[in-house]
Amino acid sequence: MFSKLATIVVKNPWKIIAAWIVLAIAVIAFAPSLANYTTSSAGAGLPASYESVQAQNTATKYFPQTSGATGTIVVTAANGSVITSSTDQTSISGLATQLTAQKIPGVYVITAVNAQGAPTISQNQKAQIVTVVFTGQPGSTVVNNAVDTIRTDTTAYFRGTGLVGGLTGNAAISVDTTNAYASAETIITIATVLAIVILLALIFRSIIIAFLPIVVIGVVHAMAQGVTAWLADGFGFQVGNELAPLLVVVMFGVGTDYIVFLLFRYRNDIIVNSSQNGVEHLEGAVSKIGAVIASAATTVITAFAALLVASLESLQTLAPGLIVGVFFMMLAGLTLVPALFKVLGKTLFFPYHPRAPKKTTQSERMAHLTIGHRAISLIVGIVIMAGLALGCLGFKTTYNQLAELPGSTPSLIAYNAMSANFPAGYLGPTQVFVTGVAPLNQTAITNLYNKLKATSGVYGVGQPTLNNTDSAAATAVQMNVVLTDNPYSTQAIDLVERTIEPEVNGSVPGDFAVVGGTTAQLVDVRAAMKLSLDHVIPLALIIVGIIIGLLLLAISAPFWILIGVALLYAAVLGTVLLVFVAGFGFVGVDFTLPLVAYLFVMAVGSDYNILIAHQLREAHKEGLDKKAAAKQAIKTGAPAVTAAGLILAATFASLLFTGIEVLEEIGLAVVAACLLTAYILTTKMLPALSATFGNFFWWPSHKTGGKAASGGTPSTPEVPVS
Fold first, then answer.
1. Contact between 608 and 645 (Cβ < 8 Å)
2. Where are the beta strands (DSSP E) in 504-624?
3. Measured in Å, how far apart are the chain's first and last C-alpha atoms?
4. How far apart are CA 620 and CA 632, in angstroms?
5. Residue 215, burial from CB neighbour count under 10 angstroms (0-12, 13-18, 19+)
6. How far is CA 496 from the centre of its chain?
């Protein structure tokens, strides 16, 4: 199949290029912007069976005026002094009055007093809060615009007064998260492009090769964004903020990998078969590497597709974009890239001309050392990865996405000012709802109120609010519970899950009682995340194993490859924990990291192992014995794998400069996965296993090898990186 595809592409390069140009113009010109379908809500898409969703629905039905996003304007003196003077109090009250008078779209109410009509000022009298209630949910356009207006007008209002005000709360956090990820995407794109250009120039010594992948992948990336936006529009879903930056590094990373795989094979064939013409070189390279690219892309796609069974929509909706991106890169790698190679001809490698090495290469020395001491190679590799995996013993996760944002984030600065003067729980009260038939059981509700108020970890409970001014006709009641801890913290999540929810559920006989709010939502997010891990991890493992088995026509080889990938995952997760938790003192890694890192490790580990396994298979088919075949695989495959691994690591290293902790953690995870895979697992441990087990490594395939290294000349000798 790939031989036929190679012939078609190489003989019709201009038609292939023209088809891609037309398709690119059509998609980029007419597809909607992916930004229109992006949300920053971590809990977006929780199934209706979860309690926090039921609580939100209850709030919308019975308390629509106060069921929207929330905000808190934290007012402090610029010099840190107290703000008890009548002038300051009047000024702060005037802010609420002025903002209310503006009738800002998306804002329901703005008040500088509490339920009793008194100013909400801290005990140390250094901060006062102004409460904002929005009419929509965090992330909606009207709420986002309202956040910007409130911030601008608050700054202008306090100018010259000696007071400063900052807006925090879930609406402001949503806006700041979106802005932070947009800035991160810019940083990532610039760093990724520079890394790829520099590394390709150093590896291939070609100006054209250095810049060609950037142009190709840039166009394909824009197409993938457009198609993903179409899917989001057609199927009615939104994607998380994480998708945009991840799509950049994934597409530029795997796209460059596929181009590097083809370049090394093409260059090798030019050197070995110099008597043939360039068309035969390219056809042979595409027919051989085509299967590797298709198989590698398929394993990555299926690994990402496993996200579709996740319980969180924010994870589910990562899948379409990543799948589309990798699929488009696979098509480009099999058609557009070789068509461009054909049109460019010999100028592709300008000013360098491919030639055979004049001395023993690094890969030849590596092959001799690894296979000559294969037991040591295996033991050293296992010890390194097992040692890194010990970092998993300190495994901790965090759900505090506000703290993961850069320190200059406005909502984080405002929150820090508030938490320094008020209980941390003021950021997002936990909401308790009781609904039933009028009249409500007031005795049971009062008992619940007193019980919540006496609960350890609860700072205070607001007076019960009825949905009807006539208590005899009220069918719902709401109580706001302010926790002592940050509502995003693990302590708060544990308190709500293990104490408050059990206290509330069934507290009023015959009535419906639920818990909602930020912390309750995170309780459900944590439960959904555990369920997602239980489903996604084994599903991805099984599907990838089947694909590798079908490619290699073996059971034993895929088994050992997956064992290696599992060990790699433990080492990668341990590395991240050692660096960020043990080293930098993070509270924990982001709650999504274990799953996202697993999928990337599965993708990276499978990609490079497929290339080397394919080389091993070829060497066996040429008649080489197990040791000679392993050496040959290292010689022919290691340069491509190490180069691709280095480039992919460099692209994901760009995430380390974003200032967003979850992206930094993902970046380090993939960097570790690339380096461990390219320099230990794939180029040393896998060939050493093959040389150790021989034909059993390919069970149940029939015996193919037999000749020693001197038995023949390999069809694709190793070509050095430098």
1. yes
2. 512-516, 589-590
3. 33
4. 10
5. exposed
6. 27
CB atoms within 10 A of CB 123: 9
Distance CA 613, CA 335 (A): 24
| Matching residue, tokens 């290029």 | 17
If asked whether residues 345 and 199 sit together in one domain, one would say yes
- Strand boundaries in 182-297, DSSP class E: 239-240
The torsion angle over the Cα atoms of residues 165, 167, 169 and 173, rounded to 10 degrees, is: -140
pLDDT of residue 41: 60
What is the widest separation between alpha-carbon atoms in the chain? 97
Whether 96 contacts 131, CB under 8 Å: no
Residues 116 and 263 in one domain: no
Please state the φ and ψ torsions of residue 131, each to the nearest 5 degrees. -90, 135
Which of these ranges, 211-215, 405-409, 710-714, has the smallest mean pLDDT? Answer: 710-714
| Count of all residues that appear for the chain in the document | 722
Q: Is residue 631 part of a domain?
A: yes
Angle among Cα 533, 537, 541 to the nearest 5 degrees reads 175
Number of domains in the chain: 3
Query: Which two tokens mark 120?
Result: 């909400």
Closest CA to 427 of 169, 145, 135: 169
The C-alpha angle with vertex 660 and arms to 38 and 567, in degrees rounded to 5, equals 100
CATH number, domain at 440?
A: 3.30.70.1430
pTM assigned to the model? 0.88
- Mean pLDDT within 287-291: 89
SS3 track for 355-411: CCCCCCCHHHHHHHHHHHCHHHHHHHHHHHHHHHHHHHHHCCEECCCCCCCCCCCHH
- Euclidean distance between CA atoms 280 and 560, whole angstroms: 35
718 occurs within a structural domain: no
Question: Strand pairing of 239-240 and 38-39?
Answer: parallel
CA separation for the pair 242, 244 (Å, rounded) = 6
Q: What angle do CA 472, 474, 476 make, to 5 degrees?
A: 145
Q: Taking the alpha carbons of 123, 129, 134, 140 in that order, is the dihedral positive or negative?
A: negative
Q: Which of 164-168, 538-542, 623-627, 699-703 has the highest mean pLDDT?
A: 164-168
Contact 88, 77 (CB under 8 A): yes
pLDDT class for 577, splitting at 50, 70, 90?
Answer: very high
